[in-house]
Amino acid sequence: MTTTPGNLFIISAPSGAGKTSLVKALLQTGIDLSLSVSYTTRPARAEEVDGQDYHFISREDFEQRQKQDDFLESAQVYGNFYGTSKKWINDAITSGRDILLEIDSQGAQQVRRIFAQAVTIFVLPPSLDALEMRLRRRAQDSLEAIGRRLAAAREEINHVREYDYVIINEKLDDASQELRCIIQAERLRTAKQLARHHSLITQLVNISVP
Ligand code: GDP
Ligand code: ADP
Ligand code: 5GP
């Protein structure tokens, strides 16, 4: 398989572990990374912006898009549907950009099957109590939705071994630094550097010593 110059990163976590906060902190550092905006049937939270956090769509619209094969992957998570735009990903990958998907473990499995080079990162909370506290403090989901998310946490955490990297999000600053390190190290892999700096490396390798 040929190596594409861009990287596809996937980040998953049980709800409330801090995946979205980590990604926000990462993007604020000015790192050159494009975030895929998923389609979802979940209602928008108070601070969420349509087209920025998610494309919020109806169940009918979601099913229509599924029929049209618009999604690279899709899954039902905590009772709502989520999907990643195939066209957006293809355009981004072809242009050599690094992209990041915030998707659940079912979605990660589907993308890995299509794109084996994906680099996968799993975020864990420091404890189940901390997870519960964060979900309650976030206060963005109904009590029923919080209960559903907590009940699903163990099942989601069970997938941790399928991932390339694990971050334990105890202190947000430390965890976001770790996320940045993973991305930087992956960018420096020889195969990626050969793809990105093809002409420079060819030139350097072919220099004849006088
Ligand atoms: P939060 O992660 O607790 O803030 O809750 P969200 O409602 O934003 O996300 C719910 C779940 O859906 C999480 O596990 C996300 O990773 C996952 N998710 C979000 N977008 C996608 C997507 O496009 N595809 C898949 N498969 N999962 C997604
Ligand atoms: P996810 O996207 O994984 O569901 P969020 O990023 O929305 O998680 O974080 C859930 C809640 O926990 C938010 O209210 C967030 O501010 C808080 N949070 C995230 N990381 C930490 C941390 N390291 N310490 C304390 N609170 C955190
Ligand atoms: P929330 O509703 O709290 O934003 O997200 C709940 C879960 O859905 C999170 O674990 C999130 O990663 C996942 N999720 C969000 N978008 C997608 C998506 O496009 N595909 C899949 N498979 N999961 C998603």
TrEMBL record:
Catalytic activity as recorded in UniProt: GMP + ATP = GDP + ADP
Ranges for domain Guanylate kinase-like: 6-184
Transmembrane regions listed in the UniProt entry: none
SUPFAM superfamilies: P-loop containing nucleoside triphosphate hydrolases
MF terms (GO), sorted A to Z: ATP binding; GMP kinase activity
Pfam families, per database record: Guanylate_kin
EC top class, as a word: transferase
Residues holding ATP: A13, P14, S15, G16, A17, G18, K19, T20
Entry-linked PANTHER family: GUANYLATE KINASE, GUANYLATE KINASE-RELATED
Protein name: Guanylate kinase
The species this protein was found in: Nitrosovibrio tenuis
